[in-house]
Amino acid sequence: MNENLPPCPECSGAYTYEMGALLVCPECGHEWSLSAGAADGSGTAGEKVIKDSVGNVLADGDTVTVVKTLKVKGSPTGIKAGTKVRNIRLVDGVDGHDIDCKVDGFGPMQLKSSVVKKA
């Protein structure tokens, strides 16, 4: 194991490993970024990781696909499943709406990360 990696901020497990840009604890399953853990020592307190409906980590500028049909006030059809949304922006929204985007045919709106999947 690499002794240079910090222990898990959740359970203090010593068996952390790198997976892409994140550090992962195999004991409790906690994931955090190395920069956030090293900067303040409290894990993800400074940066919230937002995941899509299948567990992929989302980032600003990603393209996502809507996984289920969504009702939209004032629209008879709504947003159909399979609609691609480009260039998303992650925000701290109200009621779990943490994606700010512009949907073709509907305009700007906020979506929940639980109804999209990374394309």
Compact description:
The chain is 6% helix and 24% strand. It is mainly beta and 119 residues long.
Descriptive terms for the model:
1 helix, three-stranded antiparallel sheet, mainly beta, about 120 residues
Structural notes for this entry:
- Helix content is about 5%, strand content about 25%.
- The protein is built from 1 helix and 9 strands.
- The chain has one helix spanning about 35-40; strands spanning about 15-20, 20-25, 30-35, 65, 85, 90, 100-105, 105-110, 115-119.
Layout of helices and strands:
Layout: E1 17-19, E2 22-24, E3 31-33, H1 34-40, E4 64-66, E5 84-85, E6 89-90, E7 99-103, E8 107-111, E9 116-118
Antiparallel strand pairs: 1-2, 2-3, 4-5, 4-9, 6-7, 7-8
Average of per-residue pLDDT values:
84
> Helix content range of the residues, please?
under 10%
Low-confidence stretches: 37-45
Oligomeric grouping of the chains: single chain
Number of strands: 9
Tally of helical segments: 1
Give the distance, in angstroms, between the N- and C-terminal Cα atoms.
34 Å
Strand sequence of the main sheet, in spatial order? 1-2-3
Major β-sheet, in short? 3 strands, antiparallel
Write down the Rg. 17 Å
* Secondary-structure element string: EEEHEEEEEE
Q: What is the 3D form?
A: elongated
Which structural class is indicated by helix and strand composition?
A: mainly beta
Roughly what fraction of the amino acids lie in strands? Answer: 15-25%
